[in-house]
Amino acid sequence: MKFIIIQGGYNITDDVKTKGVETILGNPSIAVRKMSVPLIISMLLVSIYNLVDAAWVAGLGSDALAGVGFVTPLFLILVGLGNGLGGGATSALSKYIGQQRKQWADNGGVHVILITVVISLIVTVLLLLVLEPLVTAMGAGNTLGYAMDYGSIMFAGAIFFVLPNAMYGILRAEGDVNRTMIAMAISGIINIIIDPIFIYTLNLGVKGAALATLISSGLVILIIAYWFYIKNNTYIKPYWSNYKFNKEISYDILKVGIPASLELLMTAILTAVISTILTTVATTDAVAVYTTGWRVVSLGTMPIIGISTALVSIVGANLGARRFENIKTAHRYSMKLAFLVSVITGVLLYIFAPQVVMLFSYSTGSAHLAGTMVEFLRCMTFYYLFMCVGAPSTFLFQGVGKGLTAMVQTILRTVIFSIICAYLFAIILGMGEHGVWYGIIVGQAIASIITLAWSSEYVKHLIKINSK
């Protein structure tokens, strides 16, 4: 590889620059489109195999479905940890690429992997310790056995969920989203194939669902490790020989990674509190409807999240290259694209909600949930219309390295406003289960408007300050 040494780092010559690096530093609108499509496909695949999990578990009855649902908020902590550290990796490493600091990007890749391994092992122990008391406090009741069977296996293998997402972040930093898509596709297909085998053929029940998910996710680590260390054709080289502890690199990763990890923890808190409110105003069936239906809703959010995730590396690279107008262009274009897909997604979900619900209500034990679940899904189609401006605006702050700001926005959107509104509609106004649904939508709307105004003013200020 050839490097031309310049002030501030290394000039990336044509023989080492990948197409991904060229993309994130090129036309911002084109970059958003090119980066978004593979990420959207990747995230849809993940959501689809999560739905497949729920569909197969539904065959075990509504209690099994609710038991898995009670574990969902805690499992989101693992997903959030991986996504957060991946976001920290993307933000920091893409900035180094934009600054043409190749050695820092390589060293940062190793930092990401080491930090992720240590944190995930600590979280494993903590989650196993709090699993039973937490799901009991959430009102698991007679579904506790299912919750423990599912949760104990999932949390024992926490590293297999966290590390792949952090490794995805390294690939996204250099604009390589195609391989992220390939790894997720392989993982999803394997999970779909072995799910029924583990659950029914081997008669493992919800334990089988957990094991199938664990195995398919763990395979991603091997796939990405092959690209990094054997095929050796990625731009960032996270080799041990490139590692030298650096406080600034660690800080750059963690200042976005930790707050971003806590963002999904906020979603977990929301799910836990909403489940508690639902058991107060209704029954555990309402929890099964909400947690299972939310998997479908989450599937619909994946295109928006994919577009927003693409924005992180584009913003980070252009921040490092001091191309601030590109940040503004990318942000605006990402919201327009997200709005388009949110309308399409909402219309499709509203029309086909009955057919979707059939996946989770085919057994005699869960058939009675069908009608309410259709209502829930149709109500939640309005959620997308507000998320399409809120999510890109929050992810923009991850891209510029302001992880705490992004976390505060997520807390406003997913916890404070949603929980307050859900409590207001469901309990104070006596609207029960439906009031919870309305509260989530209204909370999202209020917070998204605030987030959009916040991000727009920040970008204007960034351009103004640096134009002087």
Structure in a nutshell:
With 468 residues, this protein is mainly α. 82% of the residues lie in helices and 2% in strands. A two-stranded antiparallel ribbon has the order 1-2.
Tell me what the structure shows.
- There is one protein chain.
- The protein is an all-alpha fold and about 475 residues long.
- The chain has one domain (about 20-465).
- Helices cover about 80% and strands about 0% of the residues.
- The chain contains 15 helices and 2 strands.
- It has helices at about 20-25, 30-60, 60-100, 100-135, 145-155, 160-175, 180-200, 205-230, 245-280, 285-320, 325-355, 370-380, 385-400, 405-430, 430-465, and strands at about 5, 10.
- The chain has a two-stranded antiparallel ribbon with strand order 1-2.
- Strand 1 and strand 2 (about 10) form a beta hairpin.
- Helix 2 runs antiparallel to helix 10, helix 13 runs parallel beside helix 15 (about 430-465) and helix 14 (about 405-430) runs antiparallel to helix 15 (about 430-465).
- The protein is globular, with a radius of gyration of 22 Å.
- The protein starts with a strand and ends with a helix.
- About 60% of the residues are buried.
